[in-house]
Design goal:
The complex is a heterodimer of chains A (about 120) and B (about 200).
Chain A (H helix, E strand, L loop, with lengths): L17 H4 L16 E4 L12 H9 L4 E2 H8 L3 H13 L3 E4 L2 E2 L7 H12 L2
Antiparallel strand pairs in A: 1-2, 1-3
Helix pairs in contact in A: 2-4, 3-4
Chain B lengths: L17 E8 L6 H8 L1 E10 L2 H7 L9 E14 L2 E7 L7 H8 L4 E6 L8 H9 L4 E6 L9 H8 L7 E4 L4 H19 L1 H4 L1
Parallel strand pairs in B: 1-4, 1-5, 5-6, 6-7
Antiparallel strand pairs in B: 2-3, 3-4
Helix pairs in contact in B: 1-6
The chains are: A alpha+beta (about 120), B alpha/beta (about 200).
Chain lengths: ~120, ~200
């Protein structure tokens, strides 16, 4: 028999809808960034804490050590799109830096890197 | 530390790392999650995306007013090959209605592995089509399930109408060695398509 408890597991998703965390925004502000871009907290003082929600602080906490956008999304268990918006806010406040990775696209990647990858994989 | 760190003088650095993005595609239940988990620490990732018209029928939103987004779960794994060289594996939902996600993932991807089950070979047609159209190098990995009939790779090549230069490998998605071999085959193939004259 179904009970109300079955709605309380992770499968049911967050109680707060994602758009509430982002105040209805679906697009991140500022320059777009790659999902594997490196994120790092700047150690700047938080000038206007009122503009930030608890999720911003969770994200900021995770960025105390360099990490990536997808790693943060996985750790805070929020959808990628929401994390992008939170990160863009933090960047606007000067609290994080977001640095694009060096892209490694087929036909543009150098052979030396590919050989390094092969070597690395064989050594796993 | 993989992504830079704090220098002794207290300055903050975030070194640019070289990010290799590899996509892992294939039909539902073909073993994508298993393969990612076999070679890397697997991490769940959620995306909240708009529902397409096709998706609406499947998700049956009757009774859930104004539900216009759906949560798509996917897997990613990270393999740190060197301090500044990191390989990311993204297991992408195979259904066509999730292809809006592929477009972001495919941007800047090095290559793709299409994981196939010979009992349901048709499930991987859309993925093959997708990568062919976007000119993303890919290989086929046949996940050999217990009890499934072993087709030869050439039978599969004929069935999928694939170019003779496109690698098809048999694999056991549960095995680390086998999963490694799949990735190595893909990188070798990328080397080949980058400069066919040199590498084979």
């Amino acid at each position: 028999m179904p009970s109300h408890e079955e709605w309380l597991d992770a499968e049911a998703g967050p109680v707060v809808r994602p758009y509430q965390l982002t105040r209805g925004r679906t697009r991140a502000s500022g320059e777009a960034f790659d999902m594997v871009a490196t994120v790092m907290a700047t150690q700047a003082r938080i000038a206007a804490p009122g503009g930030l929600g608890p999720e911003h602080f969770s994200v900021l906490q995770l960025a105390q050590k360099p990490t990536t956008v997808v790693d943060i999304a996985s750790d805070v268990a929020l959808p990628l799109g929401v994390v992008r918006i939170l990160l863009a806010d933090l960047r606007e406040f000067g609290l994080v830096t977001i640095q694009a990775p060096i892209p490694m696209k087929a036909r543009q990647v150098d052979r030396e890197t590919l050989k390094e990858v092969l070597h690395g994989l064989r050594g796993l | 530390m993989a992504y830079g760190g704090y220098e002794p003088d207290g300055a903050v650095t975030a070194r640019r790392h070289r990010a290799i993005k590899i996509l892992l595609a294939g039909g539902f239940g073909v073993g994508k999650t298993t393969l990612v988990g076999a070679v890397s620490e697997i991490r769940p990732l959620r995306t909240e995306e708009p529902l397409t018209e096709t998706g609406k029928n499947i998700d049956s939103t009757a009774g859930v007013e104004r539900k216009t987004t759906t949560t798509v779960a996917m897997d990613f794994g990270r393999i740190t090959l060197r301090e500044d060289l990191v390989l990311y594996l993204f297991g992408t939902p195979g259904q066509e209605r999730f292809w809006f996600m592929w477009d972001e993932l495919a941007l800047g991807a090095l290559g793709a592995v299409v994981l196939a089950d010979t009992r349901r070979l048709a499930d991987c047609f859309p993925a093959i089509d997708y990568f062919e159209r976007r000119d993303i190098p890919f290989i086929i990995a046949l996940n050999v399930f217990d009890g499934s009939r072993r087709y030869t790779t050439e039978e599969v090549r004929a069935a999928l109408d694939l170019d003779p230069s496109l690698p098809i490998v048999l694999c056991d998605a549960r095995s680390k060695e086998s999963a490694k071999e799949v990735l190595i085959t893909l990188i070798e193939h990328v080397l080949y398509v980058t400069d066919p004259a040199v590498s084979r």
